[in-house]
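Have a close read of the entry that follows and walk me through the local backbone shapes. See right below:
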Amino acid sequence: MLLLSERRLRWYTVTVGFSLHFVRFDDQTDIDGFRRFLDERQLVLVPSEFGSGLCNVHTADGEPLQLDGESRPTLLNVTDPNTSDHVSAHIERPSLTVEALRFVYDLCVAARLAIVNPQGDPDDSSYPMMLIPARNHTAQQLQQIAEDTGLNHRFVDNAQELRAILVPDPAH
């Protein structure tokens, strides 16, 4: 688990493969928005076998979440909003299709979360470490985060922009 500065930023590191983390840097997560997001998609939280207040996201019929009809479940872990005053999450080896990233983007907009891309380059603004959907963090917050952590950022206004950053065109 990593902690940045004195902030209550929490996420679990993934040792293999691509991952994304979803956090709110000022603990002003919209838990009601997060719950509405789950309800609208008929998704439920199931306690994780890892414990520690983590849950996995499943369909209403108890099946693990699968984005884009993948043959393997999409592992999306979240802190349990019933036992915590904030929500943070991470997704391991996500499909990077527009449909999957629309899900990610909409989740982050609903809960007012930033996307932390551990694969990002802190010295290259074209492949940032932090992506801000729908400008849900202020310039002042982002400046403080950059000073505290060195994380660079870019704003994204939709899933297509998010995908363009995470899956760069090799021709460019």
